[in-house]
Amino acid sequence: MRLDHRIFGYEKPDTNSKRLFLLSIFTNDVKNNPFKLPLGAYYETSGLDEKGLKLKYKNITGNFVQATFIDATKIKGTTLYLEKKWVEIIPKK
């Protein structure tokens, strides 16, 4: 745990919109999803893979990264927005 973090995924590209998702190093934020976020709370994105979930980059929207949260059925994805300052985008080679 090199850096403390609490990164929310929002319904719209606005930090005042509904929170849908959380990445946090804090057990009190993640265990049993205490914020009752519809898409859940996780320690890291690798925790998604273990549950058959994916977070896929779509676009940049202002100061936000637009992503799709894909559930285990891979049928339906939910669009969410993460503050761009928390996301590092590495181009494919």
Write a structural description.
- Strand 5 and strand 6 form a beta hairpin.
- The chain has one domain (6-85).
- Helix content is 9%, strand content 38%.
- The mean pLDDT is 89.
- Strands 3-2-1-6-5-4 form a six-stranded mixed beta sheet.
- The chain has 93 residues and is mainly beta.
- The protein is built from two helices and six strands, in the order ββαβαβββ.
- It has helices at residues 27-30, 46-49, and strands spanning 6-10, 19-24, 41-42, 54-61, 64-70, 77-83.
Secondary-structure map:
Elements: E1 6-10, E2 19-24, H1 27-30, E3 41-42, H2 46-49, E4 54-61, E5 64-70, E6 77-83
Parallel strand pairs: 2-3
Antiparallel strand pairs: 1-2, 1-6, 4-5, 5-6
Relevant terms:
single chain, 93 residues, mainly beta
